[in-house]
């Protein structure tokens, strides 16, 4: 039994729920949605999750209606982008049932990410050291050079 299988499905489902809930309000949700999709795809390959059907999205892209794939992981349901094959094989369930809610879960985002990172075997890139960050400079404020000039001047700025 490898490390992935040792993580209970209920823990993965709770972690995915937590990540999905945070992604909906995050200013930069791309990474959270990426790890959610990776984990769900891996669960589908391992037959630990089931494709239920297709739903119309509540958030049309460019004013065009599109569908999302509904996936069941343990007692939780999630939406991910469907493949072309999903449209051929799965039933379209129509509008989203807004009365249904996933079970409430209390898990920190950092713990949820650790579970999913471990499951998908993903390692975050090394963080840069504090000293290597660019210093913020405002385009509206130009610092004065008064008091910073060399005297007597060592460089002449005029070329005669």
Folded structure, characterized:
The protein is built from four helices and three strands, in the order ααβββαα. It is α+β, with helices and mostly antiparallel strands and 160 residues long. A hairpin with a 2-residue loop joins strand 2 and strand 3 (76-80). Helix 1 (9-23) runs antiparallel to helix 2 (30-45) and helix 1 (9-23) crosses helix 4 (109-120).
Give a quick rundown of the structure:
With 160 residues, the chain is an alpha+beta fold.
Topology:
Elements: H1 9-23, H2 30-45, E1 50-56, E2 67-73, E3 76-80, H3 84-89, H4 109-120
Antiparallel strand pairs: 1-2, 2-3
- Report the count of strand segments: 3
- Order of SSEs: HHEEEHH
Q: Strand order across the biggest sheet?
A: 1-2-3
- Low-confidence parts, pLDDT < 50 over ≥5 residues? none
Mean pLDDT reading:
80
3D shape: elongated
* Helix/strand structural class: alpha+beta
Biggest sheet features: 3 strands, antiparallel
Helix content: 25-40%
> Count of DSSP helices?
4
Beta-sheet strand percentage?
Answer: 5-15%
Span of the ends, CA to CA: 81 Å
Radius of gyration, in angstroms, nearest whole number: 25 Å
Task: Spell out the key features of this protein.
single chain, 160 residues, 4 helices, 31% helix
């Amino acid at each position: 039994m490898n490390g992935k299988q040792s993580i209970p499905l209920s823990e993965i489902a709770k972690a995915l729920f937590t990540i999905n809930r945070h992604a909906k309000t995050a200013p930069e949700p791309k990474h959270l949605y990426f790890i959610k999709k990776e984990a769900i795809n891996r669960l589908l390959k391992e037959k630990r999750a089931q494709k239920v059907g297709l739903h119309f999205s509540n958030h049309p892209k460019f004013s065009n209606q599109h569908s999302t794939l509904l996936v069941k992981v343990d007692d939780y349901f999630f939406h991910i982008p469907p493949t072309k094959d999903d449209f051929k094989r799965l039933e379209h369930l129509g509008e989203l049932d807004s009365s249904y809610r996933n079970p409430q879960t209390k898990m920190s985002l950092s713990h949820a990410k650790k579970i999913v990172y471990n499951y998908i075997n993903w390692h975050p890139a090394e963080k840069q050291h504090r000293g290597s960050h660019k210093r913020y400079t405002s385009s509206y404020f130009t610092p004065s050079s008064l008091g910073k000039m060399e005297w007597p001047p060592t460089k002449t700025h005029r070329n005669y």
